[in-house]
Amino acid sequence: MSEKPAAPETKKSWFAQLKAGLSRTSNSLTENLTSALVKRKLDEETLDDLEEVLIKADLGVGMADRIREAVAQGRYNKGLTADDVRHVLATEVARVLDPVAQPLTLDEAAKPHVILVVGVNGTGKTTTIGKLAHQFERKGKRVMLAAADTFRAAAIDQLKVWGERVGAEVVAKDVGADPAGVAYEALERAKREDAEVLLIDTAGRLQNKGDLMAELAKIVRVLKKIDESAPHSVLLVLDATTGQNAISQVQTFQEIAGVTNLVVTKLDGTARGGILVAIAERFGLPINAIGIGEGIEDFEPFDAHDFARAIAGAGRENDAAA
């Protein structure tokens, strides 16, 4: 008797992937909140414990204050249930994230729209570039990539692999070449070949802030020789697993490169996903997308309400796969 073929795996919905990816954050957060609040009298000591849990989860002092206030004003005479905690948390997180959840939009008048991608080495810059290129290509955009992180052979090679994978031309030179020269040549070629998007990878060494600042400033300067409005976007890629250090990275790259947009990666590898909330509240920069997993499709426009529900461990209506 022949065996029946195995049923094909059903691909999870994005929300199901998001919820699974944020499970370490939500489990840690809701467990600590529940133990701090459930079946306890809502006195000052309990509210202090609540605030401490939220701050330790990297949600930020402002968010911790607001959730404390929301809980204190609620009518929980018989104590809070776990669902009460999740509801308050999801509501307050969504309120902060909603204004910054914005897609990365292209300036149609820019030919090409130049996106300078910055961030500390190891945050997933090159992978993010590949995933963005894939999305733009899928929308019918002609994309070109520039390997301006010329200090690491691995970065150049990785970008070439992504270029082949998504069908985008890659402008690259040997290790040690002038990064600004690569960027200049790439923009010249992108204009010549009518590319609509140019994504430029850059080095992210923070050991010497002065050198990094000078290098990025030179890249911007040479781009402006060709197109005064370039770069049109400066996209900072942040690694969520770094926790509070991500805040100092935003500050540094704001100063160095004038960051306009954020992408947050590795949310599936941390119990400190709350840092995204603290960053949103402090800087108000558009968060375009989040990365959960290494797959080319594991990258979606940032949705504040989905994120809030996922971090609170709550479900989403009409999402059977979740």
Describe the structure in your own words.
The chain has 322 residues and is α/β, with parallel strands linked by helices. It has 2 domains: 14-100, SRP54, nucleotide-binding domain (Four Helix Bundle (Hemerythrin (Met), subunit A)); 113-301, P-loop containing nucleotide triphosphate hydrolases (Rossmann fold, 3-Layer(aba) Sandwich). It is built from 12 helices and 8 strands. It has helices at 14-21, 23-37, 44-56, 61-73, 82-97, 125-138, 153-166, 179-192, 209-226, 245-257, 275-283, 304-311, and strands spanning 113-118, 143-147, 169-171, 197-201, 233-239, 261-265, 287-291, 299-301. Strands 3-2-4-1-5-6-7-8 form an 8-stranded mixed beta sheet, with helices on both faces. α11 links the parallel β6 (261-265) and β7.
How would you concisely characterize the structure shown here?
The chain is α/β, with parallel strands linked by helices. The chain is 48% helix and 12% strand.
Note the total helix count.
Answer: 12
Which word captures the global form?
A: elongated
* Total number of beta strands: 8
Rounded Rg: 22 Å
Set out the fold topology.
Layout: H1 14-21, H2 23-37, H3 44-56, H4 61-73, H5 82-97, E1 113-118, H6 125-138, E2 143-147, H7 153-166, E3 169-171, H8 179-192, E4 197-201, H9 209-226, E5 233-239, H10 245-257, E6 261-265, H11 275-283, E7 287-291, E8 299-301, H12 304-311
Parallel strand pairs: 1-4, 1-5, 2-3, 2-4, 5-6, 6-7
Antiparallel strand pairs: 7-8
Helix pairs in contact: 1-12, 2-3, 3-4, 4-5, 5-12, 6-7, 8-9
